[in-house]
Amino acid sequence: MRGYLVFIILSCVFLYYVLHCILWRDNTSWLRVVEMKRSPVLSCSSKPAFESLLRVPCKKCIVVGNGAVLRNKTLGEKIDSYDVIIRINDGPVRGHEEDVGTRTTFRIFYPESVFTNPADNDPDTVAILTVFKPHDLKWLWELLAGITPEVNHFWKKPALNLIYKPEKIRILDPIITRMAAFNMLHFPTTFPKTEKPKHPTTGIIAITLAFYICHEVHLAGFKYNFTDKNGPLHYYGNTTMSMMSKSEYHNITAEQIFLKNIIEKNFVINLTKD
């Protein structure tokens, strides 16, 4: 067992080095924040909600969730007006432009949630891999190396091809996920053996990233109707709300409390509160 753990650790270090060289080459950061033009209508006279986390000042950002509340809200033009637009997993733009817009700055994903249809590729989008387990890194390394990935270590079959060019892929610094779990959601550092370890949803991780890089953060698509188990979960597809309550890996109650707090304290502006 000890030898196996040492092998896993060394493999992770090796994979990190290889991916670092492939994706970054001459850059020393995990997530390079691209230089973006400042919006002429945004004033920087006020302090950002999380000033200590700020790295790129004066950017007005929106994090677009995948909630069904976005349906028929015709927020597309509004969403497209932001300096930075962060989207989540495989929430589509194609076919939903009127409600969710057309532009994407960053799309945060994990192996089981990335787009595979080339029609969904946006050449201007930076795709950011959120790593939850060593096999996520191995999956990316194998795809970049032209190797068919193993699929036995994923909760559902991951993508077997990448529609993004290597220079448009980043790996999210794990500190962002750690901050989301422990600083934002206050998860314990250990869980009983009888309980599945909890980790933040991609949406909460995306909001945490926005606090890190943006001066002003707005949200859309993060409101859910938990009383209607048969109601739609997403603005796309046919998945119902019952799927959210079945997840063993997320603490939805903690996330709803977090969202309620940051909205009430005006840390964010919620465009889909109704």
Q: Count every helix, treating DSSP H or I runs of 4 or more residues as helices.
A: 8
Q: What percentage of amino acids are in beta strands?
A: 5-15%
* Cα distance spanning the termini: 53 Å
- The strand count comes to 7
Mean pLDDT: 82
Which CATH architecture would you pick? Alpha-Beta Complex
Order of helices and strands: HEHEHEEHEHHEHHE
Q: Which regions contain 5 or more consecutive residues with pLDDT less than 50?
A: 17-42, 49-54
CATH class: Alpha Beta
CATH topology: sialyltransferase cstii, chain A
In CATH terms, the superfamily is Glycosyl transferase family 29
As laid out across the biggest beta sheet, the strand order is 5-4-3-2-1-6-7
Q: What's the gyration radius in Å?
A: 19 Å
Sum up the overall morphology in one term: globular
How many separate domains? 1
Helix content: 25-40%
Structural class designation: alpha/beta
Largest pleated sheet: 7 strands, parallel
Description:
The chain has helices at residues 2-23, 76-80, 97-100, 134-144, 174-184, 202-213, 242-245, 252-264, and strands spanning 60-64, 84-88, 106-109, 126-129, 169-171, 216-220, 269-270. The protein is α/β, with parallel strands linked by helices and 274 residues long. It has a single domain, classed as Glycosyl transferase family 29 (sialyltransferase cstii, chain A, Alpha-Beta Complex), CATH 3.90.1480. The chain has a 7-stranded parallel sheet, covered by helices on one side. Helix 3 links the parallel strand 2 and strand 3. It is globular, with a radius of gyration of 19 Å.
